[in-house]
């Protein structure tokens, strides 16, 4: 196994991006276009994973990217990485949208939801992304089935843990602990530290 | 819900999978639970890796639309730049205890207008304006509670150029507030960051926030519990703050015992 691969992949997105965000926070539009290049792929991918509809995903991704510009002065490195800040924004926006839109419609198609696995098969030429994807996929396989399904439905599909429990016909307490156990395993497998 | 029950929600919270009322309850818990905050941060960074793995290829048009739009969108001011009434100056002498509540009220007005500092991590930053206002109020309530606590103890010291710093600790609440007056604004683009001193190891306690009409007056609730810290420090850090101090401290003070 290529344990260390992701480290080089992530390093190029780490300190540079933080520095660039600092420049963006002071109104630097050139710095923003560099931030854009670094984050637009992950932002769009994550939003699309939750929303699935391509047109709506582009719209939300655009909102998120403009939000990055607008609120860059609020970014605090002490509270997480720059990419974390951006993707947290993206996930919140996507989830807020899906929860407002889907309340009555798409949520009925539970089978369809369960059927889908994350869109790991998107074609991309970026080596870093491919390595990241391999690593995540490998770590996902170390989870129990219930852990994997819970994490996937909550994160990639934007469901609340209550919806996950209902969908998987499992007790609420079980889903809570599976989400936490699953993330502990993923954290350790991916070598994440705070 | 019991604290133990809440603790298992770190996973759901980090994935944004808690329904609204439970999210709020958990965030209140988070302010008092350093272990939970660390776990949430790690889980959130883990989720970020999951997000990177589904990266997609955006169209050129998206880039153009975004770059066009940002040219017309005004950025938010950095947190801590807003100020309202003073009230802190001159309250560091003897007998100040009785005046804390008056100061607390002034600080409360200031914090209500500023972006909340109590949240334990970035997630809070992503909430909408309404939630921010609420967080600011909560931060503020906590600040006032510390200052007004029956067991509040304080210690003052000199920072630099005649600036004064006072740290107030409430043991029962396990929280601390730092007040400073006469302190020049941090040099261009930099910020003041606060730290807990855990026996020589510095733990970030968030950024310092201006709190009065005077830009030289600060009142900040330190992020996270005191948790046995023996002292606190102030450093100048790049915008956004740092995970570890990157400069020599302006001040190191031991906490009142």
Automatic annotation (TrEMBL), chain A:
Residue span, RNA polymerase sigma-70 region domain: 37-100
Keywords: Sigma factor, Transcription, Transcription regulation
Protein name: Sigma-70 family RNA polymerase sigma factor
Regions crossing the membrane: none
RNA polymerase sigma factor 70 region 4 type domain ranges (all copies): 133-186
Keyword field contains Transcription: yes
Family, similarity comment: Belongs to the sigma-70 factor family. ECF subfamily.
Organism the protein comes from: Streptomyces poriferorum
InterPro entries in the cross-refs: RNA_pol_sigma-70-like, RNA_pol_sigma-70_dom, RNA_pol_sigma70_r2, RNA_pol_sigma70_r4_t2
NCBIfam families: PRK09646.1, sigma70-ECF
Keyword check for Transcription regulation: yes
């Amino acid at each position: 196994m290529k344990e260390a691969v992701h480290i080089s992949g992530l390093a190029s997105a780490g300190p540079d991006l933080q520095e660039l965000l600092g420049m963006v926070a002071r109104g630097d539009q050139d710095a923003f276009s560099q931030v854009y290049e670094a984050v637009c792929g992950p932002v769009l991918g994550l939003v699309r994973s939750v929303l699935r509809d391509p047109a709506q995903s582009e719209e939300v991704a655009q909102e998120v990217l403009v939000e990055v510009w607008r609120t860059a002065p609020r970014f605090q490195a002490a509270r997480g990485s720059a990419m974390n800040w951006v993707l947290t924004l993206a996930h919140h926006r996507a989830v807020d949208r899906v929860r407002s839109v889907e309340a009555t419609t798409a949520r009925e198609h539970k089978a369809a939801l369960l059927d889908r696995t994350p869109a790991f098969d998107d074609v991309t030429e970026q080596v870093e992304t491919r390595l990241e994807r391999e690593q995540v996929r490998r770590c996902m396989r170390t989870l129990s089935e219930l852990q994997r399904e819970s994490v996937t439905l909550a994160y990639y599909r934007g469901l609340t843990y209550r919806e996950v429990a209902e969908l998987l016909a499992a007790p609420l307490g079980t889903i809570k602990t599976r989400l936490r156990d699953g993330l502990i395993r993923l954290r350790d497998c991916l070598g994440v530290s705070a | 819900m019991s604290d133990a029950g809440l603790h298992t929600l770190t996973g759901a919270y980090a994935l944004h999978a808690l329904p609204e009322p439970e999210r709020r309850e958990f965030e209140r818990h988070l302010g008092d639970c350093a272990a939970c905050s660390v776990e949430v941060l790690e889980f959130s960074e883990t989720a970020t890796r999951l997000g990177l793995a589904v990266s997609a290829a955006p169209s050129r048009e998206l880039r153009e639309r975004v770059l066009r739009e940002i040219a017309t969108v005004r950025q938010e001011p950095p947190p801590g730049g807003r100020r309202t009434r003073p009230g802190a100056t001159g309250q560091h002498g003897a007998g100040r205890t009785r005046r804390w509540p008056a100061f607390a009220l002034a600080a409360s007005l200031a914090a209500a207008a500023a972006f909340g500092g109590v949240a334990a991590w970035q997630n809070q930053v992503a909430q909408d304006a309404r939630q921010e206002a609420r967080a600011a109020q909560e931060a503020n309530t906590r600040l006032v509670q510390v200052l007004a606590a029956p067991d509040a103890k304080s210690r003052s010291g000199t920072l630099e150029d005649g600036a004064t710093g006072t740290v107030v600790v409430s043991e029962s609440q396990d929280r601390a507030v730092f007040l400073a007056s006469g302190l020049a604004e941090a040099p261009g683009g930099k910020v003041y960051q606060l730290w807990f001193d855990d026996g020589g190891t510095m733990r970030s306690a968030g950024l310092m926030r201006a709190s009065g009409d005077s830009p030289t007056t600060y009142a900040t609730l330190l992020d996270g519990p005191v948790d046995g810290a023996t002292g606190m420090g102030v450093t100048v850090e790049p915008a956004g703050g740092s995970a570890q101090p990157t400069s020599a401290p302006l001040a190191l003070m031991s906490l009142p015992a």
